[in-house]
Structure formats: structure tokens, C-alpha cells
Write a structure and sequence with these properties.
The complex is a heterodimer of chains A (about 350) and B (about 475). Chain A is mainly α. Chain A has helices at about 10-60, 65-75, 80-95, 100-110, 115-120, 125-140, 145-150, 155-170, 175-185, 190-200, 205-215, 220-230, 240-250, 250-265, 270-275, 285-295, 300-310, 315-325, 335-345, 345-360. The radius of gyration of chain B is 23 Å and the shape is globular. Chain B has helices at about 1-45, 70-80, 100-105, 145-155, 175-180, 180-185, 220-240, 255-260, 275-285, 310-330, 340-355, 360-375, 380-410, 415-430, 430-445; strands spanning about 55-65, 85-90, 110, 125-130, 135-140, 160-165, 170, 190-200, 205, 210, 250-255, 295-305. Chain B is about 50% helix and about 15% strand. Chain B has 15 helices and 12 strands.
Chain lengths: ~350, ~475
Amino acid sequence: MLLLVAPLGLTLWVLAITAVVIVAVIAIGVSRHIESFRTDRRRERVRVELEPVFSRFFESEDRARLAEELRPVFMRMDAAHRPVAAVLVADLMQAASFSQREQLREALEESGIVELGHRGTRRLSPWRRALACEMLGKIGAPRSVPVLLERLDDRRPEVRMAAVRALGDIGSAEAVPALSQAFLERRIAPTNVVNNALRRIGGAAAPAFEQGIESTDPIVRVSSCFGLSGIAESHGGAVHRLAEVLASESDAHVRAAAAGALGLVGGGNAPAALVAATTDPEVAVRRAALKALGSFDDPTTGEAIVASTEDDDRETALRAAEALLALARRPRAASEARARLASSSTWAVEYARTVAEVSA
Amino acid sequence: MTSVLQSISIGILGFFLLYCAVTLTLLALSLREIMWYTRGHEPTGTRPGELGHQPSVSLVAPAYNEETLIVQSAKGFLASDYPRLEVIVVDDGSHDETFARLDEAFDLVPLPLRGRLALETAPVGSVHISRIDPRLRVVHKENGGRSDAINAGISVARGELVVITDADSLLEPDAITRSIQPFEVHPDSCLAVGGGIRVANGSRIVGGRVVAPGVSWRGVGATQVLEYLRGFFATRIAWSELNGLLIISGAFGVFRRDLLVALGGFSRDTLGEDMEMTMRIHHLLRPQWKDARVQFAPDAVCWTEAPGTLGGLRNQRVRWHAGLLDNLRMHWGMFGRARFGAAGTIAMPYMVLFEALEPIVEVVGFAIVITLLVLNLVNWTYLVAFFLIALLTGQVLSTTALLIEEIGFRRYRALDLLRLTAWGFVEALWFRPPLAWWRLKATVDALIGRRPGWGSIPRGEAILERPGEVVAPLTR
């Protein structure tokens, strides 16, 4: 089709270049194929070297010996082996018990591996920086926090995310100001990732979520509601604050989030705002409120729940019926809920009952 | 005469070079992403539970006359490792024993069917739950076509996310878990995720699961494996990165349920309802939701049986092309407009030029060669040289796609990759010409108002109503 256009010389050049490109791509493919076998072998070698060392530690719990044995093993490894070892260490840390983890951490610090991890966070390759962050998070040494905080400004989002998660894994309050700022400004890493890290830090992160509730950004407000529910055990005022948000917030999505978050906390008496939310004009809020009411052992909520089983919205009616079934399994609310279930003949109750029977 | 042919040839040359440049750029972008993905995925990739909870998922599988496969398919869906899953099989008025087989295998119990369904569909007769596995629901309804069946499934679904698949698709056990990870990391911006579709022809399937991926010994099957690798794994990774992914395959896509309901469900007026929904999401939501994303999860894998004969392939491709043209027309408003991001400025022009118009250019090219042969104007050296260039340039794309497969996924044995490379060399000789011809025929049919399958030409505007509410973020 092009035979009237190009001179033959040019055509032959294009032909030759194209052929070279194909050969090059095939060569890369073959080398990658071989490389994958080498990686498997490398992984196996690292495993063979490290596993006995860790096994001896798990048997004897002799921290000093572990530190002594680990250092030469790590020092012998080249740049290709260390990332594999880092993954293995991260996995072992996760599998260990709390007391073993503490000892492992000290041994890893003493043997200089934490230091190697710190250096790894400054490597040229982004995946190695991220892996180093990941490993440091799993080791959990508080002295890694400043190094990880530096990585919050990394140019690659994956590295920033790994650093945020690692800070959450370590759980040090030292990271709260930087993470709070990241959370409120919605930069550095996705809101959920930062939220999770703050939650793992616990009560010390409460001011971040309290501030988030006041944010002008509804996504931060939504996320803050769930953040408060996540730290409710260590932050006594969480339920009260969430109830306040549910009663006063103008954005329906935030109200729904507050109701949902209250449901995650659960407990004895349900906040009045949650019962009132069952008649909220917004479907999303009613649905969340009814689901949440099932988490409270409060016999006084039965009436509101039963009324909602006839809601025009199918999902709201079903959630109300499911909440009633949930109450019927709770110590305080059971008798009241069972009586209401027995006297109800709405389709939603019938539906939920059938599902519960079949599932049982 | 010669000067006219020369002008057309120059135009075709320009088109050809542009196509190669753009596609190679996409491949390079995919390659870059896949390098990160393979290196970083294990230790630093998305973690399940990032939302603080796992969103509930409803899998919707429409079934029409699937009595032979349906029980095995349902068991395959239920074998997913995702914990918060309900599976909804929608029997779309089958004339065979589809429903009876399900009833027999899963001991179905009717559920009360009242309350207004979220989407309008052909009448739904009954909804059932299984005593054997209560995660299974079966919707029995009057026939209304694939989109209608999906909409019925969405209406009874209760999950925050809906997985749309086909009754004859085979999902890998971790496919759902992997496909929802983008929602977990970006709950406030991720609206839909497409999974990777792989061709099962030639693979060993045991108990509804692909246990040994392979490549068909038949050219039609093998070439489609290569085609899917190019289409899904080589370029969609790049489109996803650019946030310009215009199609989430109907065989495996994940959507937020509230979004699908707010948008009025899948269109019943187009043959490419999967692409239409993806384009509608971009068209309606991108201008008001700047960071909204439609993503591709290449490691969430669904296996599908591709047509094994040229006849079957023809029907499929004519339908696909008609769907493509419908959708481009419906969403023409996005073309070249910056407020739709890369979807409007890059992906739409790419679709128009290299998908919709390409068969015309290709067939015109073949016609010129034939004309020159008839007029005896052919310089055989040039003909052979240019033919080789076309062949080898196509092969660069295919080989790069295979490289991406080998680096990122390593599903196939080395021998299979070599066979695919070989099929790539001869593809232009026997596979592409009929493909171009069928697609040209579909274009002509569309122009004269005739279309394959059912229904009339859609008006398009009817489904472009604004969603009633801005959907809530999934943020936790």
C-alpha cells in the first residue's frame, strides 16, 4: 500500500531497525525468563541461610545469639539478596508472638540490620526504598520514625504509602503531627492509608480525627468519623462526638458515616441521635443508622426499628429487619425484639427471617 | 490515477506511523508500570483491609440457556476467597433447564419479593436463596437481554460493590480480592475497576478452574490469546495509568453499586453495554469529580472461552464493532475535551482513529495493492519490503506484549510464548484481513441503520440523564 511513497533505501533501513527491535525485545524476554529462575534460586538460598538462625531463636529465645548470628549472614549478602532477606524478615516479624517480636527487634537493631534498612530507604530504586520502609515498619524500631518521616516527601507515591503504613506499624506518637497534617490536607498518601496508620497509633491520634471532623473537606470529615470509631477504646469521647456529628452535620454522607461509625463501636444504650436518624430524609443515613442500631443492646430502639421495616426504600426496610434480628440475640434487648418480630408480618422481616433460618 | 493513489498511500503511511508511535508509547508506559508492579507488588502493594473493613461484594452473573454450565459456574463463583460475598445468578427467562439445574444442585428457597427494585427491568418472577450455600441468590425473570438481567441482579444485590461477569466466565479464586484493592486504597475516587481477561482456549480446566494455562493449537484460538494479551495486559495498564480507560469488559468488571443505580443501570440499547457504562461514568462524573478514577487490575484474572472458529469470531467482532460505533456516537461529547481528562483528550481520539476508522484504512490499503497489481504498476521489491515492514512492526507490538506478560505475570510456559510469537508473525496474513473486512461491514451496516443482534439503533441521549445524587465516598 505504501509502495509509491518511500525510497527503497529508507525502506530497508526501517526494515532492519524493526527487526533489531524485535530481536532485542525477545532477548530481554529470554533474559527475564532466566532472571526469574535466578531469583527463585536466590530466594531459596536466603531462606536456607536465614531460617535455621531464626528457628534456633524461636526454640531458645536467645536474643544475643540471634544478633551474633544474623550480622555475618546479612553482611555476606549482596544487593540482590538483601531485599529477599528483608521480605523474609518482615514475614517472620509478622508471624512472631508479641514478646518474641520485641526480642527480634532488639536483635535486629543490635546486628545492624535496622541500620541497613535505614540506608535502604535512600536507595535509587523506588521499589527498594518502599521495601526498606516496609521492613522497618515490621521490625517496629521507634528510632526508624525520623527516617520514615523523611520518606513522606518521596517523589514516588508507592514509597510514601509504604512509609505511612510503616509509621502506623511502629505506632509511635512521634509520627502523629506529620501524619495528622497529611490526613487533613489529603496529600502524601490516600486518606484511608493515613487514617489506618493514625488508628494504629491509637488514642494519641485522636486530635487528628477531632480536627478532621471540623474540616471543610467532606471526605476528611467522613474518614474522621471512622477514625474516631477505630480509636473509641482509647478515646472515651468518641461516641459522644460521633453522636454530635450525626445530630448537627449538614452533609448527608458525613451523617451516614457518623451513624456507620457508631455502629462499629456498638455498646449498650444507643445514642438518641442514632434513633432519630432512622427518620432522616436521606436514604443513606437511614440505612446506616438502622444497621448501627443492631450493634447496640438497647430495648428502647425496637419501636423505631419496626417502623422502618416498612420504609419505602427496600434496603432500609431490610436493614431494619436485620437490626431487629440482631437485637433478638442480645441479652437486654432480646425479649422485646423477639416479641416485635413475632408480631411483625412485613415482607422485610419475613425476608430477613428466611435468610437467617437458611444461614443457620 | 497514479497521483490519487499516491496521495492515499501517503495518508495511509501517516496513519500507520502514527498508530505505531502511539501504541508503542502505550506499551512503553505499560512496561514501566509493570516493572514497578512486579517489583513492588508483594511487599508494598495494596493491602486488604485498608478501608478498615472489607466492603461487601455482590457478584452478578446473567445466564440465558446455560443449563450445561450453570451449576459448575455458580460453584466456581462461590469458591472465591473473598469473605464478604454474595453470588447472584440471574436466569434471564431461559428456555432450557437453567433454573431447574440450580434448584436441584443448591436447594433453592423463595424469598419474599416486595419493595420497589432500584432499577426498572423486565418482570422479576422470584428471588431465591440456597440452603446449600446461603451466599447464593437466584433471580428468575422474564427475558430482557444481558443488560436487563444485570440490572435485575444489581437491584436485588446488597453489596457495596458489584462484580459483573458472565455465567460462562471462570474467575480465579483471588480475582475478586485483587479487583477490589484499588477501591480499598482510593475509596474516595475509584469508581470502577476492570479485571484482566484471558483466553481459556487451550488451557486445562478442572472443576471450573484453569489449572494449567495453555495456548490452543488452532490458529483462531492462539491468535486471540495474543490479541487479548496485547489488548488487556499491554495497553490497558497504560490507559488505566493515564485514567483514560474507556472499557471495562463485561466478562469481569467491578463497580460501586450506588453508582450503577444512580446512573440508571446498564443500557439496554447498545450491543456494547460494558463499554457504554464505562464511558458514561467518564462522561457524567469526570467533569464534577476531578479525581474520579476508572482502573484496571491486571492481576485480577477472569478466563473466558473465545470463539474457536472464524464464523464465531465474525459474529463476535461484528457485534463488538457495532457496539463501539454506538458508544462513540453516544459519548461523542467527550471527544477532545479537556474536562474529561485523558478519556476525552487521548482515549476518545485513539478509539475513533485506531478502532473505528482503522478497518476502513486497512481495507482501502488492501484495495490499493490489488488495484496496483491489476494496473501492473507494482514494483515487487517495494511490495515485499513494505509488506515485511508492516509485518515486523506488528510483531514489535506483539513481542512487547509478550514481554510484559513474561515480566509481569509468567502464566505461560516458554514453549507457549514461542508459539505465540510465531502466530504473531503470520497474523497479518490470515487473521487481520477478515477482521478488517467484518469491521468494515459492521461500519457500513451502522451507517445504513442495520445492526446485528436485537433492538433498534439507540438514540443515545435517553441514557444521558444526570445521576440523581452524587454518590457517597466509600471512605472509612
